[in-house]
User: Which sequence fits this backbone?
């Protein structure tokens, strides 16, 4: 269970609407309740949905940071499918437009190979087996589900490692868009970070650690560097949980 709970560090701290948080909380409750009750088959289904939620949030951030490349990655989709993908207003809406396995193709935009994409997507096949009546219980002991969780968390960490350039790009844009502190939406750096970095970009605790490693000196030649440094200093000084929930 402990390794599974690590996934919280990779999921957003703030959501676009309350229903998204309620949904994630429901999945965590379903996972933990069934795991504790040794109903491992149902616990695995809940954890898989948490895993796929993580993937959808990552793809959403890729779309935000790399809109042109994202559009190019849709080559091969029918025009109406492209339009529906562009119009998605929530990471969860991707699954209304795509087969689950298709969403992983967008991870190639962050340098993942076809082999890696296959590793990420293989859990969909195993989930489909247990989501249909087969007469077989695939996860009937703690060792079996723990082994599956270990495999899934390995892929979560792999995806997140590839996401660092995307997170840095989102953070760079956040800083440069706020070079004039007179135009900030909020008067304090912490509130500005919470609302327009964390909340607006579905940032996780791990994403914020990436942001803290951003080389702010690279913006020295930009106008408004003092305002940008004040935001960065605030981010570095705050623990990620303190930036929770702007909405």
Assistant:
């Amino acid at each position: 269970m402990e390794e599974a709970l690590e996934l919280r560090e990779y999921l957003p701290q703030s959501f676009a609407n309350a229903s998204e948080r309620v949904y994630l909380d429901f999945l965590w409750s379903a996972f933990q309740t069934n795991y504790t009750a040794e109903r491992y088959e149902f616990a695995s289904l809940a954890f898989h949905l948490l895993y796929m939620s993580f993937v959808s949030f990552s793809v959403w951030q890729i779309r935000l940071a790399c809109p042109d490349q994202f559009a190019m990655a849709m080559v091969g989709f029918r025009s109406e499918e492209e339009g529906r993908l562009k119009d998605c207003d929530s990471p969860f809406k991707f699954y209304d437009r795509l087969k689950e396995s298709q969403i992983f193709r967008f991870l190639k935009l962050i340098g993942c190979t076809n082999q890696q994409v296959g590793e990420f997507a293989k859990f969909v096949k195993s989930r489909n087996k247990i989501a249909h009546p087969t007469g077989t219980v695939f996860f009937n002991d703690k060792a079996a589900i723990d082994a599956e969780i270990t495999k899934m968390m390995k892929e979560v960490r792999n995806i997140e490692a590839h996401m660092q350039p995307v997170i840095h790009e989102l953070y760079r844009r956040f800083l440069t868009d706020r070079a004039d502190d007179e135009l900030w939406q909020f008067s304090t750096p912490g509130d500005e970070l919470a609302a327009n970095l964390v909340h607006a970009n579905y940032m996780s605790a791990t994403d914020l650690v990436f942001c803290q490693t951003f080389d702010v000196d690279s913006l020295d030649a930009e106008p408004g560097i003092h305002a940008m440094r004040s935001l960065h200093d605030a981010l570095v000084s705050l623990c990620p949980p303190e930036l929770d929930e702007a909405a």
Remarks:
- The first helix runs from residue 2 to 5.
- DSSP finds twelve helices and no strands in the chain.
- Residues 2-162 form one domain.
